Amino acid sequence: MVNSKGHEMIKGITGRAREAARELSVLSTAGKNRILLSMADAIAFERGEIKKANEEDIARAEQNGRSSAFMDRLRLDDKRIDGMARQAREVAGLKDPVGRVLERHERPNGLVIKKVSVPIGVIGIIYESRPNVTADCVSLCLKSGNAVILRGGSDAMCSNKAVYLSMKKAASAHGLHEGAFILIEDTSRTLVDAMLQASGRIDLIMPRGGESLIRQVAEKSRVPVIKHYKGICHVYVDDEADLNMAEKICLNAKVQRPGVCNAMETLLVHEGIAGEFLPRMAEKLIKEHVRLKGCGRTERILADKDIEAATDEDFATEYLDLVLNIRVVSSVNEAVDHISRFGSGHSDAIVTENTGKAEEFTMRVDSAAVYVNASTRFTDGGEFGKGAEIGISTDKLHARGPMGLEELTTYKYIVTGTGQVRP
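^ that's the sequence the OP posted. Answer follows.
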């Protein structure tokens, strides 16, 4: 239940954001780029304050017994701070998505009809423990001409605020409307619920976090939502795979950053090479402290390893941790069937030297990103050349996969005549 105070607070915030959105929609490309470059410099310059704030969040998370994967998502070191600044600069260097003529045609009566890209308007981001989301969303929304309302979780609030303030100072120096990006510091559920009921004042909600958060948002929201519930990503190693390549891809997909949505949760291996591939792969994974769960055939092949029995519930779980399911399959068809049953439509990969099998896999697996001979870890706005991402959508309408500048626009028709009236 949303109280009147929550409604009034969100009404005030969205009012400022809508004013800003009108200004942002006509802000020049050069103007947006100058602000983005200044914000990138500010993030780098304020790294000391950002790291200090992040240390407060880290200390609190440690006291609360958070997992290692959670801590990894929360941590801001010099490399990640440099990454936030770099991505803001990369966004500045990308083509402006606003004002593109997507279609143009002239009717027999002389009307000229143009389909032109425009900003969505006011976007609400509800996110949990990744403070880099603050910088990414501000950068992308500014370049795409959208105002953004940010509501981060309590676990990262000190970090979020420090990143936000560094960008706010830089933007204010250029005279940017103060409602262009707003961080809600109140982490109560009341304001989240008020955001979700702000139909007509917020144009789009994007939740970024665990499955429970996303489901709550999707179920309660009166505002359109773009979402992905979870990232149950698979790598299928075919019997015609280069096993050295497969080993490298699987290790990267699981252990490089296990706490993110594009990490592999289930390894599928063809029975023809399982006896050779699984023991060497398991050895590498165990050295990286990965806990293994497997089907009956996997357990027999890895009888000398510490491996647990995998259940259907396990195959349907997004671990976001150093835990991996393994299943032996008899064909591409069985691998695809498994992915269809347990997958989340996020990212799935095949490792094979057979182009026919690769084509079959890519055509039949219905996911936002499907890979051939590459790690699922590349499903990311920066890696896709989008500068950054505001989220990864597993929906099929409006946007799918990593969402960058183009996905933050919609379109309108501009019709030019010479006095025509409809007969």
